[in-house]
Amino acid sequence: MFLTIITFIIVLGVLVFVHELGHFLAARKFGVKAEEFGFGFPPRMFGVYKDNQSKWKYVNGGKEVKDAPGTIYSLNWIPIGGFVKIKGEDAAGDGSIVGGSRDTSEDKNSCQQELEQDSLVNKPIWQRAIIMSAGVTMNIVLAAALIIFGLSIGMPQVLDGIHPKAQISDKKIQVVQVYPDSPASQAGIIIGDAIISINNVRFVNYEELQKFVDENQGKELDYIIGRESEEMLIAITPEIRQETSMGGIGIAIAETGIVKYPWYLAIAEGVKTTVFLTWAIIAAFYELFKGLIAGHGLSADIAGPVGIAALTGQMARMGFVYVLQFAALLSINLAIINFLPFPALDGGRVLFLFLEKIKGRPVKRELEAAIHQAGLILLMLLVLVVTFKDVARFGDNFKMLWDKIAG
Questions:
Q1: Which of 88, 113, 186, 279 is the most core-located residue (most Cβ within 10 A)?
Q2: Is 340 found in the same domain as 378?
Q3: Tally of domains in the chain
């Protein structure tokens, strides 16, 4: 379980840090001053910056530095992610960017910043939009880089339409979906399980496996399941599907394996995979929101911090490439969530810029700040609800951790 916590902190830290790095680099590109760029969350441990003579100066702890000519690069006590504080963003009504949320408490210098050329508020709308969107862009770029690297060393993939020059190892028949209230779900089968054999019969491909199950509808079958590094015996009775007279246990399966590409193909396949995953996740969000509008409630598949931590631990126990793949998926998810046109998110801020372009003037600072604060509160409530669902799903894993800590 300690491996779970460490891996989760590293993965989440890298994703958030890269997101904030995107905002920082874009701001620098357009001549907007980044007042502070920090690794980890405050309180500050220490920081450094260049003075007017280009000499590095040391900042101890949370000491306030007034009118620092350059960016304060800080190391902070909470080692997850990072933040960037952009000059003039409070004057634009948003506060400073801090780990994906904004601090609206620092508006005492906003009037002065409106007159300074290195302030965000004085930049054209298109430049501000790029700065706001740069974190999302960096998360997509990071996902592509992780996938390209993973495919160059060997990464798990579905063996469908694989390039003939790819090297394939560790082939298996794997569960890719488990339907609710099915025999498989009731027996404890989960996504990612490998079907090693049924009644001591091993199968070359999923067509042979499906045929075997169909021929034994209504009979109890002994499944040998591979999960992480363990094997287990699970008895399941395939139900008879009346509409087709075929037996099934309520899963979707696919042939998977570790796929390795030459570096030049890894780049092309990595970009293609990133695009495919991005559209697939966007489609999943569309279905989620459609379900919410229809009154179906939150999907059971949604995971919050606790669920993501538990899944990260599972990937860590399976191996490094699985962590890479999971991190890439999380990075794409973070990008899409942040770009939703919802207050307090990057997409919400871009939406306000769009409204400013249409109206010819910005929304009143106080009104926009209040809307973002309300959006942040709603997001925190959503995270709280999802966390309670996570604890119900993964609570046993964290109880084991607590028992170990307590001795």
A1: 88
A2: yes
A3: 2
